[in-house]
Specification:
It contains 1 helix and 4 strands. By secondary structure, it is an alpha+beta fold. Strands 3-2-1-4 form a 4-stranded mixed sheet, with helices on one face. The chain is elongated, with a radius of gyration of 12 Å. The mean pLDDT is 92.
Length: 75
């Protein structure tokens, strides 16, 4: 599956969490990543998506298809 097809929600970290952004992939439970910039967080998320799918396939778990949500960046 194409990692870029999965929607990613990017939000800035709170001051308590540090600097940068976190990226969540709602279609793949537990699939998250981070980065210093929103673009870096999305790139990291795409790598995390590929790893999530590979692990699911290796374990024989189903891989949910990407939903129709749009990628978003929260401010």
């Amino acid at each position: 599956m194409n990692a870029a097809a999965y929607p990613v929600i990017v939000r800035p970290l709170s001051p308590e969490e540090g600097q940068g952004y976190t990226a969540e992939v709602p279609d793949l439970p537990g699939c998250t990543a981070g980065g210093i910039t929103p673009a870096e967080a999305v790139t990291s998320a795409e790598a995390a998506i590929r790893a999530w799918i590979a692990a699911a396939e290796k374990d024989g778990r189903p891989v949910p298809p990407p939903s129709k949500r749009l990628r978003t960046v929260s401010q």
